[in-house]
Request: fold
Amino acid sequence: MPSNRPDVAPEVKRQEIRSAARTVFFNDGFDKASVARIAREAGVTPNTLYWYFDSKDALFAAVVEELMGLFFLGLKSRDPAEPLEDTLRWVVQGMQAARPLIVTLHEKAKTSAPIAALHERFHAELAELLEGMLSERAMDPARIPAFIHIASFVVEGLLMHELPTAARDAVIRELAAF
Reply:
């Protein structure tokens, strides 16, 4: 039976709820993931969940934001001397692991303000990070903005439309050659 566990620090409880929600969102998908199921998985009551997150959308955004942080940390740790193709392959593979959440993010960004804001922030942070990485790799500064847009469209396309590995790798290779 869920308990309020008043001895647990608020940030610890928020993390427990986010972790439970991540599991439920991955296993059941956003639409089938009920607040009651997430609360049960976290060992709290649905009312307790709402003390920490305003809505299911806000909880979803918090889960995706946490994963974004890990993604950006990993991307920042890539060797700047690494071939661009390898970095792009790492990006696509990392995002494919979170594909169910990314698909939902794109769908819900059309109707949910917190999710739309998160989606915009992701693209802004990614663009800033890529600009620095591409500058370090001596890409012509005039080409960088277009490359960032093209890379975003290609990566999102690869996530939304699954291809066999060889075809996906060929697309990544062509993108890196741009």
Observations:
- The chain is about 75% helix and 0% strand.
